[in-house]
Amino acid sequence: MFVDRGAGGVLGSSAGKLLGLKALGAMAVVGLMSFVLIVPFGAGGDRFLASCPPGSGDSRVDDPPADAPVRARQVAFAKIIDSVAVARGLPGRATLVALMTALQESGLENIDYGDRDSVGLFQQRPSAGWGTVQQILDPSYAAEAFFGGPNPPSPPGLVDIDDWPSMSFTEAAQAVQVSAFPDAYARHERTARQIAAEAGIDLERAGDPYAGRSGPKPTVGPSQPTDIDNSCGAGGGLIEGRPINGVWPPQTASVTDPTGTGGLVTPRTAAWVAQARAALANPPMSCWDAHVWNPTSDHPKGKACDVFVGGDSRRSAPARAKGDRIANWAIQTAGTTGVHYLIWYGKIWSARTGQWTPYNGGGVYDPSDATGGHYDHVHVSLY
């Protein structure tokens, strides 16, 4: 991940709230450790943001296929994580969130390296209070820390997050990890489910989602998100506009990204960020990203930005309204800013047609997911 709280060392720089570990528990799983080794994982420096070029196709990007030894280790670590969850009485949903998080942070490998001093399954940092290197490299300890609870170290884990069962999986992971790039976890759901199936883990089991939490617990609602509108045909509060046929000379990425990623963007993109911040009350956004895994994206070209709305807009009227305002402003100003296309709320808008059409993931993303369908952020690409 990208913050001091969980560091995500294999993925990039960090910022945000420092959090600590919780105490070791579920010692019955220690025996499983006898054949699980600390191994390297070649995740490189990739950072995963939900940003998609227009296109078609029904496939999506999943984690690279793992060879037999790697998959055996992943299954073993998944069993350890789930054993901790079962011992605590947590539902299968908690295990799934943890597996998706670990796949993003370490490839579900107990790595002894990472960004700065990050180590372990969840890339937790000793300097941020997660524990000693030796403690963090105990997967049972790391899982206990991720799930949270009252024992020291004390900052919140999953059970300490109010209403996490009603969040999407990636939102719940982000609530614990507090990544500066919050859309990193969604793409790992299918792989996490496959590994869980191989490990004999019941991801549908019931349980107390706040098991181990001290103090009052929130009222437990449905274990899955509800009231999600998956339709792409409804217009909502979006405008369409007319085709925009301006001439936009090619530009190279030569300006430091004003959103702080450390990369370069085109002057046109930098100008759009400045105008968007002034017109939209400075919404959180991120532009440049390496996207090694998706080189066709406009992000590594410095020609795209993601503007975040604060959650899954299918379940949040304020988030939906915020995204509509961002998209509508981008359309209304496209003739002077050079916006090429937008992706928002399961639809894609093109300056060439001036119309919204259903977005199917572009052959890269799962359009039913909050991030893949662009329900939690507006993607803006410029010429």
TrEMBL record:
It holds the Pfam family VldE. Keywords: Membrane, Transmembrane, Transmembrane helix. The chain crosses the membrane at residues 21-43. It comes from the Bacteria. Residues 263-363 form the ARB-07466-like C-terminal domain. The lineage of its organism: Bacteria, Bacillati, Actinomycetota, Actinomycetes, Propionibacteriales. InterPro entries: ARB_07466-like_C. Residues 206-263 are annotated as: Disordered. The keyword Membrane applies. This is ARB-07466-like C-terminal domain-containing protein. It comes from Kribbella sindirgiensis.
